[in-house]
Write a structure and sequence with these properties.
The chain has helices at 3-8, 26-35, 37-50, 54-60, 67-86, 101-108, 114-134, 149-162, 186-195, 214-224, 249-261, 266-275, 294-297, and strands at residues 14-17, 94-96, 139-145, 166-173, 176-182, 199-204, 237-238, 245-246, 264-265, 280-284, 301-305. The longest helix is centred in the middle third of the chain and has 21 residues, at 114-134. 47% of the residues lie in helices and 16% in strands. The chain has 317 residues and is α/β, with parallel strands linked by helices.
Length: 317
């Protein structure tokens, strides 16, 4: 049945979206892990795959993006997808996983069994932590919105003139950007963003999705991914970098590597979904960003399935 025929039949063409990872509190995450039956089941699988209690390590974790925090986010995202399918009857035709959400998407479409995906996520986290212990130790990624593009370009041109490093790490919506830079430049960037009418959201440390991190990509490509055999996805997956539709294992492998050194471009994802005839997004997992974007709300019916999120200042990893 074509997308047009599905719409005519009264069933909206649906994309399942696994959100990217943001700062969260143990009280929020831990409560969901303990009380939600779908999360408890996935947590038990993760514990068995890793040989340790994810909940115990999460409780003792000091960072927003530690290994245990990443595994817990993965568990909650997959549990939310389980609920969407089993209780709400969501039948997705295509899948998206912006940023960290790529990992849950990889398991959901059947390219890697969930226990193996858990181990892959843990190994990637360890590789990433080791890299940022050695390289770009002071790099952060700052997210801000309502920023006039022309004035932002002038602001960043001053970085070029001073020889200061920065990279675009994401284009999320009109005037909504992620920029990676040295932490010593962060306070001035925030001040200047505010001066041109923009609003700062949060800062991730260490940084993400920056072209400068090609060495991190190489390490994961050579030392981590060869241990895992990816299968062709059972559903098409839209890449978060440029909206390409992934249909093979090799393409999905490239997508997982691209997340390290290619920025997110959500408008291209939206364009790809619209071209596919998607009219509804089911966002499964803790999300405090993608369901709020104007480009998301103006183009799709949005269904959220997952634990409630409350914003708070991020902690350093």
């Amino acid at each position: 049945m074509t997308a047009t025929e599905q719409t005519a039949a009264g069933r909206p063409r649906t994309a399942l979206v696994f959100p990217g990872m943001g700062p969260s509190a143990f009280a929020e995450v831990g409560r969901f892990l303990v009380l939600d039956p779908f999360a408890r089941k996935r947590l038990a699988e993760a514990d068995e795959a890793l040989g340790y209690s994810v909940f115990d390590r999460l409780r003792d974790s000091e960072g927003d993006y530690s290994e245990a925090t990443q595994i817990a986010f993965l568990v909650n995202s997959m549990a939310s997808a389980d609920r969407a399918v089993e209780e709400l009857g969501i039948v997705p035709e295509i899948c998206v996983g912006p940023s960290f959400g790529q990992k849950a998407a990889t398991a959901f479409v059947g390219s890697l069994p969930f226990p193996e995906l858990v181990r892959l996520t843990a190994e990637m986290a360890r590789c990433e932590i080791a890299y940022f212990t050695e390289e770009y130790r002071d790099a952060v990624t700052h997210t801000f919105f309502r920023t006039p593009q022309d004035e932002l370009a002038l602001l960043l041109a001053e970085f070029d003139e001073r020889g200061e490093w920065y990279d675009y790490s994401g284009h999320l919506d009109e005037g909504f950007c992620m920029v990676s830079l040295r932490e010593k430049e962060l306070a001035e960037l925030k001040r200047r963003v505010s001066a041109i009418g923009g609003y700062s959201m949060y800062t991730m440390a260490p940084a993400v999705h920056a072209p400068a991190f090609k060495e991190l990509r190489r390490r994961v490509e050579e030392d981590v991914l060869p241990k895992y055999e990816l299968a062709d996805p059972g559903l098409p997956v839209v890449t978060d970098q440029d909206g390409t539709v992934v249909r093979t294992a090799d393409e999905l492998r490239t997508m997982l590597l691209d997340t390290f050194d290619r920025p997110i471009h959500w408008p291209r994802v939206v364009d790809a979904l619209k071209a596919d005839g998607v009219t509804r997004l089911c966002i499964t997992g803790p999300d405090n960003l993608f369901h709020r974007l104007d480009r998301t709300k103006s183009n799709f019916e949005v269904v959220r399935v997952g634990p409630a999120k409350r914003g708070r200042p991020p902690r350093r990893r």
